[in-house]
Specification:
Oligomer: single chain
Number of helices: 13
Mean pLDDT: 79
Low-confidence stretches: 1-8, 17-23, 276-287
Distance between the termini: 131 Å
Number of strands: 0
Shape: elongated
Largest sheet: none
Radius of gyration: 41 Å
Strand content: under 5%
Helix content: 55-70%
């Protein structure tokens, strides 16, 4: 008996071929006979349309299965940068530090202007978040955050949490600021913090340098007076180096004094025997600068 060919003839592994399973053979359709060329064209067009529909229906589930959820990439980047939460009213310095930190993050991630306020308000929580919702309705008539300019948000934020009365206090503290017992870098840190409120008194870099120089301790300020500074960073660095030199000299003096005291004690022990400790203490108390 002759063997009747089937789909597996010539390919014994056809049952393992995924394509043969997913794309079935279209049924054969008899072409119309005895028709005109117009009829044949219409028939061919219909068959092409049916073939396209079948193939599209087979591919559609595969396409939808690869679809990924939409993620706000700017919000994800902002969260990854760990912005500090602003939850309650604190010191003016805390408010300024929060604004500076958020601005730094927004600049670093190259955030579009229309997303700045949206992301910044995402870092508000508690009573501050409730405050912003009220301000959004009152000041901006309920406009979406994406339609609020960053400059307008900062102005409303500062006007509320750092009112004019507080700014005046900060200005007075700035005008009275001197180094005192602080290190140069500690003095510079407070100087920079308070200078944010002293824009009426510091209009140029030279003004800023003169005010910083005037507040330094005499021992550091005097060597710097003959020079003119128009670069604030250069002035701070020179003051810091002078401080390091003075500290090194002071350590050397302390070491020399301790060494002299030790030598005086050893000399006294040599001449006076074992009862020298008490006399040494008295000697150092009465003659602290004796060579």
């Amino acid at each position: 008996m002759d063997h009747e060919p089937d789909a597996t003839d010539g390919n014994t592994d056809g049952h393992n071929d995924p394509i043969s399973r997913e794309v079935p053979t279209l049924p054969s359709v008899a072409q119309p006979t005895g028709g005109s060329s117009t009829t044949m064209d219409t028939f061919n067009q219909m068959m092409a349309a049916v073939t396209h529909l079948i193939q599209h229906s087979q591919e559609q589930p595969q396409t939808s299965s690869r679809r990924e959820p939409v993620v706000d990439k700017y919000l994800k980047i902002f969260q990854d940068m760990r912005p500090p939460l602003f939850t309650r009213v604190g010191e003016p310095v805390d408010v300024e530090n929060w604004l500076l930190r958020v601005e730094k993050i927004l600049e670093g991630m190259q955030c579009p202007d229309e997303r700045r306020v949206t992301l910044a308000t995402f870092a508000l929580d508690g009573e501050v978040e409730r405050w912003w919702r009220g301000q959004s309705l009152e000041k901006f008539r309920g406009r979406p955050d994406s339609q609020i300019l960053w400059e307008d948000f900062v102005k409303v934020f500062r006007d509320w949490f750092i009112p004019p009365s507080v700014r005046s206090q900060m200005q007075e503290r700035f005008l009275r600021l001197v180094q005192g017992e602080r290190t140069v870098m500690q003095y510079e840190s407070e100087f920079t913090t308070l200078s944010r409120y002293a824009s009426p008194f510091i209009t140029t870099t030279e003004d800023k340098c003169q005010k910083f120089l005037a507040g330094l301790r005499d021992a550091i300020r005097q060597p710097l007076l003959p020079f003119t500074f128009d670069d604030y960073a250069v002035l701070v660095e020179k003051a810091r180096r002078l401080e390091i030199d003075f500290q090194a000299v002071q350590k050397m003096r302390d070491f020399q004094q301790k060494r002299k005291g030790f030598e005086r004690t050893r000399s006294f022990q040599t001449h006076s025997g074992g009862s020298s400790v008490k006399k040494t203490i008295i000697d150092l108390a009465l003659f602290p600068n004796h060579n």
